[in-house]
Write a structure and sequence with these properties.
Length: about 450
């Protein structure tokens, strides 16, 4: 038997103007922006909190929101408001007060000046507050599972809720799932990873540690500070090499990525590496989570044995969400490429600017290719507009961009900037009664700038 035919009446019908699927960085910003601009907005999130990788995934800090030279903050708007409000709650340090080659940037400099250290648990609370204050609604522990499409438009998104299946009727949907799930269900063409090989960057499971003798730990990094510039050397590389020789390190990485939070002595660790993971497949995600947790234990044992000040290090928490760097990319009205980014190509429909490097983690395991950009680049609106669906926008790492380009715009400040643009465009499309692709771009750009966004020309 090739399949199972299943017929069921869905009694739970929910109606909204704008439906945002995915409450991660892009979805959070899209929901806030759409509601603030007058649209009745509902956000669906599959976990129990907003923030996605920033909260359930424990990923941090926010990578730089400045241009590549570290001179000008070019991601502001909702992102900057979130940073400032989280800082006011004691949960972050504003990026303007953070330099590179410090404990906050894992002693990197290139594209790591003006990162934003934060506590994930406080960030989640501030996101709740901002979304609810905007007038948007949110439903947690809800997974989109299908779409009903009529005449080229998504009429309903089918979602699995605690009560059972529900159908959410919407006038416009914004796919912020990171994996282009809704676009895929709606029949929008997509591709996985690299177009030719379909290989995707490896996954990572973040975790947090504490109870470190901070002075001893940082003294080792400070002693080697002159070697850690521009990714030419890595934190504790000598200790990792020794552990490899002794059979105490089996992970396909050569460094310990460690990012101190705004609580002295509490670090987010970005070191686990799980290659050959397709984040659109449940079995792969399951395998990666199990392997990630195994690697966490190996890294904790390594820290206790090899690193100064870490003899009594404590594992505080492990992410419940797998850190997936890349899965589907939609086929949209324009495909952003690495060449566009590196040449700083001009776009009349640019909706945000960004300056993080093209940061490619080897799809087969170890190694990173890190290519800095020329100050900044712009992301065009057309990248968020999928082909063959007249009432959808897509924001986040799954927009229409090459695998190499996505290695830059996949990080969270860019996703929030795209989310703000998508939410604003959705509200504008509804108020002007036009398709998303027919939105008045100059009007959209004007509204974005008035509401704090930065678009460099």
């Amino acid at each position: 038997m090739s399949g199972l035919y299943y017929l069921k009446t869905i009694h739970e019908i929910i109606e909204t103007d704008v439906l945002v699927v995915g409450g991660g960085p892009a979805g959070f910003a899209a929901g806030v922006a759409a509601a603030r601009n007058g649209a009745k907005t509902l956000v669906l999130e599959r976990s129990g909190m907003l923030g996605g990788m920033a909260t359930a995934g424990l990923v941090g800090p926010f990578m730089t929101c400045y241009d590549n030279d570290g001179e000008e903050q070019i991601v502001k708007g909702i992102f900057d408001e979130l940073c400032r409000r989280t800082e006011a709650r004691g949960g972050a340090i504003h990026p303007s007060r953070v330099e590179g080659l410090t404990s906050y940037s894992s002693y990197y400099w290139a594209s790591h000046r003006h990162v934003t250290p934060y506590q994930s648990e406080i960030l989640a609370v501030v996101m709740d507050e901002m979304l609810l204050e905007s007038g948007a609604q949110v439903l947690f522990n809800v997974q989109a599972v299908d779409c009903i499409v009529h005449n080229g438009k998504v009429e309903y998104v089918i979602a699995a809720m605690k009560e059972g299946l529900a159908a959410i009727k919407c006038r416009l949907v914004i796919d912020c799932t990171g994996d282009a799930d809704v676009a895929h269900f709606a029949g929008v063409p997509t591709w996985l990873g690299d177009k030719k090989t379909h290989r995707m960057q490896p996954a990572t499971l973040f975790f947090e540690v504490g109870n470190i003798d901070r002075e001893s730990f940082l003294a080792e990094l400070e002693a080697n500070k002159d070697q850690l510039d521009n990714h030419t050397a890595n934190c504790f590389a000598a200790q990792v090499a020794e552990a490899k020789r002794n059979g105490d390190w089996t992970i396909d990485r050569n460094e310990l990525g460690n990012y101190e939070q705004n609580i002295p002595g509490r670090w987010k660790i970005n070191t686990t590496r799980i290659p050959h993971v397709d984040g659109t497949r449940t079995a792969d995600i399951t395998r990666a989570l199990i392997e990630g947790r195994r690697q966490v234990q190996e890294i904790i044992a390594f820290m206790r044995k090899y690193l100064p000040g870490c003899q009594d290090v404590q594992l505080l928490q492990v992410a419940t969400a797998l850190g997936v760097r890349e899965t589907r990319h939609i086929v949209g009205k324009y495909e952003l490429t690495a060449e566009d980014i590196l040449s700083r190509k001009h776009f009349d429909d640019a909706i945000c600017s960004f300056g993080y490097a093209i940061d490619i983690h080897n799809s087969t395991g170890g190694g990173v290719t890190f290519t800095c950009v020329n100050k900044y680049y712009n992301i065009p609106y057309r990248c968020m507009v999928p082909v063959n669906c007249d009432n959808m926008l897509v924001a986040g790492r799954c927009i229409c961009g090459s695998s190499e380009a996505a290695a830059s715009f996949r990080v969270m400040p860019a996703c929030m900037a795209m989310g703000q643009a998508a939410g604003t465009a959705a509200a504008l499309a509804l108020s002007d009664d036009v398709r998303p692709e027919d939105v008045d771009i100059q009007k959209l750009r004007r509204i974005l700038i008035e509401q704090g966004a930065v678009i460099k020309d």
